[in-house]
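Hey, can you fold this one?
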Amino acid sequence: MDSAEERTPELRTLQQKVEYMVEETFPGQKISGRFFADLVRERGGSLSHSYFSNILAGKVTQPSEDILKALGLGFGVDWRFFKEESEVVDDVVAGLQFLAMRRTGEISGVAGRGLDEDGLPPELLQFALSLLQDAKGRQGAADGGGVHGEPEQ
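Sure. Predicted structure:
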């Protein structure tokens, strides 16, 4: 049950965070620095393609807050995700895992009552993901143990 997709990746450096976001935001696509810089510009930010390429190469490790905000715009996440000691890393990773499970059909929908415009709080999202993992584990154990619940004839 512990596949690489289900484990939270190690995201300590800016390079690791940006590589992770590229993989999760643009799955299966090769993203150029120019493409990403254009995307940031379309969303109202500013980031040069060479600077983005230098981040991916690990040459930039401590960019300005403006650059972090541009990365957040480009990826559509809270810019604080890219800070050195970010508290939002786990929240962003959980959100991306949740979206991936929606995309694959493992989660078909979520209804919430009394939610504000921010949607599900990160703690509730983490809880929902843990429930899903538990259910998948129980389903896998049941599938491996033979046929259950068949009516007697």
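The first helix runs from residue 14 to 25. Let me know if you want another pass with a different chain boundary.
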